[in-house]
Amino acid sequence: MSNEVELRKEVRRRLIELGVNPYPHTLKSKVTPIREVIQSPTPGSYVSVAGRVVGIRRHGALVFFDLVDDGQKIQCSISRGDVDKELFNFFEKFVDLGDYIYVDGSVYYTKKGELTIAVNYIQLLAKALRSPPVKWGHRILDPEVRYRKRYLDIMTNPQVRRIFEIRFKTIEEIRKFMWSKGYMEVETPILQPIYGGAAARPFKTHIWALDTEWYLRISLELYLKRFIVAGFNKVFEIGKNFRNEDIDIEHNPEFTMMESYEAYADYNDIMNLTEELISTVARRVLGTDAVEYPINGETTKVNLSPPYRRISIYEAFREFAGLDVESLSDDRLKEYLDKYSVKIAGGYDRGRAIVKLFDRIVGRNYLMQPTFVIDFPISSSPLAKPHRSRADLAERFELYIGGLELANAYTELNDPEIQASFFREEEVRGARGDLEAHPFDWDFVEALEHGMPPTGGLGLGIDRLVMIYTGVSSIKEVIPFPMVKSKEFE
RNA sequence: GGGCCCGUAGCUCAGCCAGGUAGAGCGGCGGGCUUUUAACCCGUAGGUCCCGGGUUCAAAUCCCGGCGGGCCCGCCA
Questions:
Q1: Mean pLDDT along residues A445-474
Q2: What percent of chain A has pLDDT over 90?
């Protein structure tokens, strides 16, 4: 292993001795992106390009090699008979896989019809001391290498690169979509004295300047609502949330959410917004809103074009599980909790029990096509407004696609007295051992006391949306640098 | 938190069950080759068998502990 590095360090040293800078500041001349050379191939034209050497095929006096620039590959050839002998020798002696080089030459098609640059000049741009771990276009198989050294994964595999291109285009298109709807993108604190807006354990940190314990945010919700109180009518934020919980196929402790809040809207408006956003962004990023998602090992067509089905959580129970949860006694419900080993932290609560049971037996198993599950039991939703026509329900929806929970949204609770009472209930749950209970946020309640208009809010999991868009079933595949245990530098 | 599986050359893996000199392909290096594209042909170097301990005449192999990774379950309203 150190052998290759040592050999290449020796090459680097010899280059410097010869007066060749292996890491020059400038290129011989301006280059054309390889993408453009490929897009409008012009045999006979003279081009200058730069890129990483990803393949070398030697045939004695003729050598073919591949350059990759910004994910685009082009073949080059260098022929001893056609170029300065020293240049040919320079290539043979000093250019290795992984190096960045500049070349210029004329474009032609080989006998096999491959677009190729007949190289006349080579400039070394950056000497690589390590070669790529696998041939370009091949997959690194070791997941540990893929996640720890993602740059290698992306460098060598265009399909991996494509996933991240889709991810970042998706974020860009969500921004454009929200702006086009009149929303303003705002920023809220990541470091917070009280966390809130979701049920999750937080990361703690120490603020030296204030000598107190603060938290990394677990959601964007409570500060965005403060913007609504402040008089901004439509705001959104795209940012990282941090939840101190386990890492698995659909959870990463650090993940990306888009949250939006709109004055004078309710959860019905937000459902319309959500389905339009997901389909519009899909069309702009993927060119289609018909995607395929692997479900239980089988590729399933998923249609992202609106309207999405809207079904109450009780109806969903009846339809998919054949269970009339609504009329179930608490004792019977507890039997189901035992049967599916569902535990409720902080003591039994009917609403929470129903929602957890739903996650366990309905959501991930049956909701493959986009589905809004609506009207949750009120005790499970301490930041949502009670339902306009049923006191036991909250105006809340969750969006499921491919069995994944993608979004959570409410007609927002704007009655400060009810909010305060919900926080008090959360405090009780916390005291009973529910580590994910909301802490009482007095400052937020005071903000509501100043008056928040009727508001509709949305939280959309960007990572999971990208999973749906790219057809991958692990969140690690869509997070560039997923969380892995740190390792001592070898 | 529980269970299962994995860790051997730069990469992919065999060898482990049944203990006895560390193996292959790709890649590297050297040589050959002027139309290849996972080029090809010949030669060659390359190892803390994840780490530590134990059993044994002898451990990559068996046992224990640890580290790292993957998957499943729990948890994630």
A1: 93
A2: 59
Edge-to-edge strands of the sheet including A234-242? A184-185, A234-242, A254-263, A455-461, A404-411, A393-401, A371-377, A309-312
Domains in chain A with CATH codes: 3-126 (2.40.50.140), 154-477 (3.30.930.10)
Is any atom of nucleic acid chain B found less than 7 Å from the CB of residue A5? Answer: no
AA letter at A306: P
Tell me which residues from 327 to 356 on chain A have a beta carbon below 7 angstroms from nucleic acid strand B: 340-343, 345, 352, 355-356
Residues 412-471 of A with CB under 7 A from strand B: 436, 438
pLDDT digits (tens, 9 = 90+) for A70-121: 999 999 999 998 998 899 999 999 999 999 999 999 999 999 999 999 999 9
Write out pLDDT tens, residues A300-330: 899 999 999 999 999 999 998 888 888 888 8
CB distance A309 to A371 below 8 Å: yes
Q: Is A19 left (phi over 0), alpha (psi -120 to 50) or beta?
A: left
Cβ of residue A144 near strand B, that is under 7 Å? Answer: yes
- CB of A384 within 8 A of CB of A376? yes
Assembly ipTM: 0.85
Q: Which of residues 168-197 of A touch strand B (CB under 7 A)?
A: none
Model's pTM, two decimal places?
A: 0.92
Average pLDDT, chain A: 90
